Amino acid sequence: MTIREFKRLYRIIEVQLRYGLDDFIPQDPRSELPKKLRKSLFWIKNQYPDKPLGERLRLALQELGPVWIKFGQMMSTRRDLFPPHIADQLALLQDQVAPFDGQLAKRTIEASLGGPVEQWFDDFDEVALASASIAQVHTATMKENGREIVFKVIRPDIRPIIEADIKLMYRMAEIVSRLQPEARRLRPVEVVREYEKTLLDELDLMREAANGIQLRRNFEGDDSLYVPEVFTDYSSVNLLVMERIYGIQVSNLEALKANGTNLKLLSENAVNIFFTQVFRDSFFHADMHPGNIFVSYEHPHDPQWIALDCGIVGTLNRDDKRYLAENLLAFFNRDYRKVAELHVDSGWVPADTNVDAFEVAIRSVCDPIFQKPLCEISFGHVLLNLFNTARRFNMEVQPQLMLLQKTLLYVEGLGRQLYPQLDLWATAKPFLEDWMSRQVGPQAIIDAVKNKAPFWAEKLPELPELLYDSLRQGKVMNQRLDTLYDNFMDSRRNQGKARFYFGIGATMMVCAAILFGDHVTTYPAIAAGSGTVFWLLGWRACRQ
After folding, report:
1. Is 129 annotated as a binding residue?
2. Is 287 a catalytic residue?
3. What is the pTM for the complete model shown?
4. Do 278 and 244 lie in a common domain?
5. Which candidate in 80, 95, 165, 287 is catalytic?
6. Any idea which residues are catalytic in this one (predicted)?
7. How many domains does the chain have?
8. Which terminus in the chain has less CB density within 10 A, N or C?
């Protein structure tokens, strides 16, 4: 560990202790060692004993930077795992992080635009509309048409902080891999690498612009999800200019109810939107915490979702989608044998895994979750149990699916807040069955023919020429094969001759040695000369 990394580690520990987060250490005999280590750092005192524990946790994560704030955002959606006084404070990390100076934000915007803001925009507000871990938002209107827009600007000097924390995470992952061989199957280094890519992608707002444009195009004509328009002419790596939207933050249940929003339909639409993104588009919004999700004020009886902040998106290839859908359907149908076999076939568990034992283990974890409303199901606890099951069967973590897993946690958190009685399984199952039927049923064949038809139509006029070329190449290939076979047979005959000559030569040399040992004068020289001649003949046969 380098001096810089050690200093950052000390800084993390110092901030946690300065905010008194050691109060989270439970009263348990197993926690004696952490408590002793805490006492050894006697010079770091809790400076905020009068603040509630939840607020201290939020302030500590906020001070540590974006890597930790992102972690707090994810925890804030799991109200089933954390008490209200913790979850309510963590929810403030979604869009109420302390903003940086508005004048500095304006200078950063002008540097990206290449001129003063007033050249293109009116009514710029230096007071941030919202502030998050990596960027903050300011409002203005466009001079040319009066449209309301928002500027999203990256926090200054944020990259070095992220890179320092990521390096420390790499170091800790390597140490864990070396010290705990059992942890290697969790692939901690690969997990950190995936997290690093996700965070660094968020620093490129042109990537977010492209993601937003793609997501908007995918749902064009679909009233269930609205994605604001992006103005790429004004956007850059450090600045994103997009349409300003007005909606109700999804975490504001009182406002949603006051607006008459159909919460049941809203929740069902959330599930359908998620699975549509995953299975139809292979392109899904992977940062669905409440700070990025709003609900339109319009037509509350048929509510429309509004998605912001497309900096983190996930993609799945065809094999990932097929594997995921088959597993989910097998879970829905309680076909745990199929789940176990799919895990083995995919290589997630070793090929020599006892499928019968694995099936029983999966059944014990998953069977209790069915035929219950969502309010009685904790997917967090289910995932924890599945994790323990995976440890027993040496299942490896798949980093490419971590974004999907995180998004599923977000979807659960939203579902709990909006409509706890939502039957997530009943909502998702018809979608997955329809998708699978289009992948493996008659409709799949029809779709494949439709997709390939333009290509076949383009190549059809060339078919006679392609057929003639194939036949001609086949004839040439046969001639080449005949030539190669003849050469091969000649080579084998020459090698046979060579072995014969070398054998006779060796025999003559042995005879010469025996005769010379018996003090015979003439014959040893004749035998040696003959042996030499046969060896030369053998060498010549090898060269042919």
Report:
1. yes
2. yes
3. 0.68
4. no
5. 287
6. 287 (proton acceptor)
7. 4
8. C
